[in-house]
Amino acid sequence: MALECARNALLQNTMDNKENTDKFRADLMNIAMTTLSSKILSQDKEYFAELAVDAVLRLKGSTNLESIQILKKPGGSLKDSFLDEGFILDKKIGIGQPKRIENAKILVANTAMDTDKVKIYGAQVRVDSMSKVADIEAAEKQKMREKVQKIIAHGINCFINRQLIYNFPEELFADAGILAIEHADFEGIERLALVTGG
User: Fold this and answer.
1) Rounded CA gap, 49 and 140, in Å?
2) Partner residues linked to 160 by β-bridges
3) 164-183 burial string, b = 16+ CB within 10 Å, else e?
4) Which SS3 state, helix, strand or coil, does residue 181 take?
5) Is 52 helix (H, G, I), strand (E, B) or coil?
6) Domains of the chain
7) H/E element holding 175?
8) DSSP assignment, residue 179?
9) Which SUPFAM superfamilies does this entry report, sorted A to Z (predicted)?
10) CA separation for the pair 102, 95 (Å, rounded)
11) What pLDDT is stored for residue 9 in this prediction?
12) For residues 84 and 69, is the Cβ–Cβ distance under 8 A?
């Protein structure tokens, strides 16, 4: 009985400010600053409360906090922290690759982009001349060229692979104006799929 009375009193006095954006933001700021008061960030709690509230408001009602990525970089001060729109996959871009892509059409893969050598343990290939070795290498190169062409045929401008991309396919992607990223980590790929809706 007492529990029900307390619950009813709380429900009657509860205010839902989500329709009033200014009050809703003020409520979120109060919650964030209260949480940050006891943390290491207490000196800069208002600044970090602003960052946290802005990040949560960008979710537009979603409760999936996995959409918020926090990257920590050494150096600088706490006030150098900032919130940025978009997605960051922390990778170096290869030589000759585009540095910026607008309206990205992304293909994510987990495929071998090294030369397709004989992948049977203990297998040996015997040749009786260097020209036959060159023929085998040319055939491997042609096979890789065909694989890259099949990837390019999807109409992409960004190829992200979980595995290594050797120089030859990387050159082919660069010649086609496609940004190729290798060794993408699983967490980054999952977050990319989340933010792109794929």
Assistant:
1) 56
2) 108, 181
3) ebeebbbbbbbeeebbbbbe
4) strand
5) helix
6) 2-80 (no CATH), 106-196 (3.50.7.10)
7) helix 167-175
8) E
9) GroEL apical domain-like (SSF52029), GroEL-intermediate domain like (SSF54849)
10) 19
11) 78
12) no
